[in-house]
Amino acid sequence: MSKEFVIGILALQGAFVEHQAALEGLSLREKLHVVLVKTPEDLEKCDALVIPGGESTTIALLARLSGVLDPLREFVKSKPVWGTCAGAILLSQAVENAKKGGQDLLGGMSIKIARNGWGSQVESFEAALEVNGLRKPDQPFNGVFIRAPVVLELSPSSTDPPIQIIAKLSPNLLPPSLASPDHSDEPKIFVALRQGQHFLTTFHPELTNDNRFHEYFVKEFVIPSKP
Ligand SMILES: NC(=O)CC[C@H](N)C(=O)O
Question: Which residues form the active site (predicted)?
Fold first, then answer.
């Protein structure tokens, strides 16, 4: 009999329906149940979780109000989690440019990230990404960035799992305000990263018809997580 997995999508605010459609559209040998998570009871059923894009401060506030913030922090310590855009902010250890009053984070990835890091001039854009480890690696992935965060720093301690770079933006696509004179390979161009059981994308794979990132998360993180 094939194994069964329950993957949750945090459904407090943001693009959770699009993630649901992308995950339900995967063809896998294993059976994947996709559940929308709004409460601690929903979260308890899950083997893995996707935190969608939206507005990170609002998602954190709603999580606190619905009593799911602390259970989420516990979940992140032992289960696979993928954060997209606002979800990537929540998965980070430190954030710059948080709203007044601060930003609750879940942690999980040893990075520092900047909210709305492309600046007010760059609301949203699309760009072909160089990807590493996805199916059809020669086919670039169209990254959809909407008021996206920017990775500022990778800061794993000596005991943290290493961070791997899964997708990069070409340095010459950086807006002048972010570009470095030597076009060096710096964190700002890293747009998909993995560390231990966690995965983040600063863009929105769920807003394209290409579900290779959803397939990647399930095959690399969710299926191997269950003996
Ligand atoms: N598309 C997004 O998820 C945007 C993230 C948003 N700027 C935030 O700070 O949370």
Answer: 85, 204, 206
